[in-house]
Specification:
Helices cover 41% and strands 10% of the residues. By secondary structure, the chain is α+β, with helices and mostly antiparallel strands.
Length: 237
């Protein structure tokens, strides 16, 4: 009696195809794997966004060093009659002092000035920007998501910010410089303050805010820690 060859057996098996039960088992396994992997993928995405934000802050720290070298070792002013601190910093270090060019660069794509985690759409941020910046033309909306510790590093003197020298900070590794600003509240995303709710840092990174310290290192801190009265020493060392 002739034997059935290997190729014939394989053809016979594959010709039968999958049964309904087998297909259901495969689908269930795929769905189970998706359920198990989804939290991990979400966590990976959040970590990547947090890392990108931290990179933005480090770049701000580098630009501050460049700015200070040309401005008597001082921090950028929280605001001037022409603009706010970050656009001033970018203009002075990258665009020969041109605020127009700095604002244009901050208005498109995903510039260094914007955190990758946004709780509103770009259109909503632009609407909030217009509502709170009526003094500026709306052709360029250079909204950004980072705030400066203005009350200590650029305190108000005679109605205007007077930035201090970096050497005046006795413990630069323990002094907050910039953090995720709460641009979602539509008030003052360019400022941070532990005592003013309208300028609290934003804890949009899974309950934490990225913080740039005066010495240039970046950490992620909870809002409760940042606004704890016992930690005021990190805001005003």
């Amino acid at each position: 009696m002739p034997t059935v060859g290997y190729e014939q057996k394989l053809t016979s098996l594959t010709a039968k195809g999958f049964t309904l039960v087998e297909l259901l088992v495969v689908v269930c396994i795929i769905l189970l794997l998706a359920v198990l992997l989804f939290p991990s993928l979400k966590d990976m995405r959040q970590r990547a966004q947090g890392a990108a934000c931290a990179s933005n802050l480090r770049q701000i720290g580098i630009l501050t060093g460049i700015y200070a070298a040309d401005h008597d070792d001082r921090f950028p002013p929280a605001w001037t009659g022409a603009g706010m601190w970050l656009e001033t910093l970018i203009a002075e270090t990258q665009y020969a002092g041109s605020l127009a060019q700095a604002r244009a660069a901050m208005s498109v794509g995903n510039p260094m000035s914007r955190c990758p985690v946004r709780l509103r759409t770009d259109a909503e941020y632009s609407t909030a920007f217009d509502a709170n910046n009526a003094m500026y033309a709306t052709s360029d909306r250079w909204w950004y998501n980072y705030g400066i510790n203005y009350s200590w590093l650029s305190p108000i003197v005679n109605g205007l910010p007077a930035p201090i020298r970096r050497t005046a900070v006795g413990k630069p590794s323990q002094c907050i410089y910039v953090a995720d600003g709460d641009s979602e509240n539509g008030l003052a995303p360019w400022l941070i303050n532990s005592l003013w709710s309208g300028a609290y840092p934003s804890a949009r990174h899974n309950g934490r805010s990225n913080v740039l310290w005066v010495d240039g290192h970046v950490t992620a801190e909870s809002l409760s820690w940042l606004t704890d009265p016992t930690n005021l020493k990190y805001w005003q060392p």
